[in-house]
Amino acid sequence: MSPEPSRLSIEAIADRSLAANGVVDAHTASELLERLRGVGLDGDVTLDLSGVDFIDSSGLRALVTAHQELESSDHKLVLSGTSDAVDRLFDITGLREHLHIA
Amino acid sequence: MNVPCSTASGPHADTLSFVLDESIGTARARIASWLRDRGAPVRRVDDVALAGSELMTNARWHGGGPIEVSCRMDDTAITLVVTNQAEPHQVPAPETWAWPEEPLARSGRGLGIVKAVADEAQVIRGDHWVAVETVFELDPTA
Lengths: 102, 142
Hints:
The complex is a heterodimer of chains A (102) and B (142). With 102 residues, chain A is an alpha/beta fold. Chain A has helices spanning 29-39, 57-71, 84-93, and strands at 8-14, 17-24, 45-55, 77-82, 100-101. In chain A, helix 1 (29-39) runs parallel beside helix 2 (57-71). In chain B, 30% of the residues lie in helices and 26% in strands. Chain B has three helices and five strands; from the N terminus they run βααββαββ. Chain B has helices spanning 24-37, 42-62, 110-117, and strands at 14-19, 67-73, 77-85, 120-125, 129-137.
């Protein structure tokens, strides 16, 4: 069986709320950031990462960028769910205490 | 070929080597699948996949020329080597791999992540290549 390539799916699950599933790496992080930006800066944005089975520093860059852009508009990026892979990377990097995790 | 040899050894050593001419995600999945097939612990497979993703991304975006990936597993350790041939990029020494000073910096975490999940890391430089070797120890009692 050939290995699966990087794959990310993002779905809108409610108003201003997205869910990401799959892989967030150098190939897919820009897609995640653009979807977050597409929600707009006029309110909080909720992102469920519980379906992310792989994330690396490219994915963190997308999350931090969206976080900062919303903060600069006095709003928040709220991470409503995290997977084991996401939790581990947040713990390794110490980002957990700097992001809004519901 | 100037790829440095792994220092890992043992009676059951096995090596996966390939030129990175596919997506990093596909290469990452190939390495993980190869390690799982050889009974590597899940956490170590995750560690190698994460470090490999960072190193292959750096090699592709900051380096040039062919990129060779080698993953060796024996009874005591997994050794992952990512080598840029022809156009080596400037990889800082592992002693300097650290987190960004600003906690919410947008970038600069890749090598810190590698350092956090690998037990050993070294940068090996040749005249026309640079290799990053990372070692992930295996607990024989696990």
